[in-house]
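Dear colleagues,

As part of the handover before I leave the project, I'm documenting each prediction I ran so the next person doesn't have to rerun anything. This entry is a single chain, and its sequence is reproduced below.
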Amino acid sequence: MGIFINMIISKSVTREEWEKVYEETLLLVKKFPFAEKRKIKIHDVDTICLVPTEERETTYRWNREKTQIGWNTVGDYTYMRTAENYYLPRNLVGDNKVEPEAGDAIFGALPAYLPYDWNDEKFNHVYQEWGAKTQGEPYHMYLLAIACLIEARLGTKAFTYGDITRGQCKKAVEIANEYLESPIEMPDRCDVKRFLKRVSQLPLSENEQLDVFEKFYLGTKDAAFGAYIRQSFSNEAIEAFWKQEFAGYKLGTIGFNDCFYNYMLWGFDLERLCGYVSFQDGEGNLKYDIFIKCVMDAKFHLVDKNCEDALKIDQEEEHPYGIWTLMAQFAFSGAKNKKVNRYIPIKEIRSALNAGIGDKCNVDEIIDAYLAKEAEQMKINIMDEDVSDEDFDMAIRQDPADAFHQVMEKTRENGLEKLEKYDINDYDDMIFYEKGDTMHPVLMKSLGGSRKFLDTALEEEEFSELMEEDSRRRCEWLIEQNRYFLMRDKDWEKIFADIEENKESFGRYYPLFRVRIESDGLMDMSIALLINDDLYAYSKELAEQEEE
């Protein structure tokens, strides 16, 4: 599980086309805070660290017999947040390797989302350049900006996909356009008309084109999106699409519920839906009642309803989502909001279901029983201080999505309150601490207690022995002991200079290379103590308060 950005280049691209856009990427690389991981000499000590990304020549293969020129990045230089390596070569296109008939780069992505065979030759006329994990770290947006640049310049010869949103693409383009002489637009996927035009030119059947259009369009998919599909594709293609979508799912499964949600949200016909659904379970039992409950749980019959879903990825959100979002979608799948933002009078619901399956079950009886139970439900605010355990459990049984929404809203409010009240609210904020900043009390206690504990390491015999060595040996010891910290070249430069100029400063660094780092929070605090002088001084004040 991870957050990815994938970029594909059609082999129809010429060397001249690629080199031109590659040069533009170098312009952005110089402006963006990309970082790469390298071993360099700092004060004559071999040091693995983060350095600003630059184009360079590297060797590869087993015997390092091959060379390549390009740039790579593993994260960002400002926050020192890293994930996996992304590389872009200068010499992507070799001599006599252009395939003029290679076609649209999107072909290289189709087997990832649609039932195509990766081994099919028609999907292999592309360069698969990117596809590593960004995990939503800050460099995600800068990588996306470069991908948007490449796609804008190469047109259908480039295609970007992965864990991205339309909002991210919009922001990424804004970031790139701050530095580009010739501004770029958002990728085709972000514009419904441009993307349909691109898809309609693919050598695929209309049914396949609809599949591609629906799966890859980036944007809010709502009633307007459904109307655009009905306007742009034949009834036959749409019919085939929904038959295929529902064919693979059994009633009551997450896949079926998602498919049902989209079908109804996009404005398609309820009666016709009955013809797409398989009502038989694995044991041959007919589950018409489960289907009717699914329809009623969508609350079409209610004008006023909360259709917000905290677990749904917002296509207009500019900020990257992280691995925790995907994990939450899995862990809290039962809290997914089943309500659909669409109103259908109960009379019309009865009519549609009776027309579709009325000869198979007593539709009105099942609906009446549902409505009677719905009328008995109580509105319960689970965040009230006086709410009982019984009411809490009832609220979850009645509407798990609403209960989850209440919890998330309260969490969001608490987070905003923290941001308004304190300058430093999380461990990863500590590297930016400045003298006089306010800090959340929990962090203050953690920082003071940690500093008190760290200082006990100065009583160790090894520390005394190292203090008898020269400064170079103390610097080398830090590198030898380093198991956790991937810091910038300038941070190591500062640390080594400090040790050389002030012998006693080693007492600051020694303890931090002796502790076991077992959490992200401790890692962030430790790095902040290593590089932030104001925070280190403040930690001493807090430690002294602990003693009092």
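The chain has three domains: 5-186, 250-300+340-371, 427-547. Residues 427-547 form one domain.

All the best with the project,
I.
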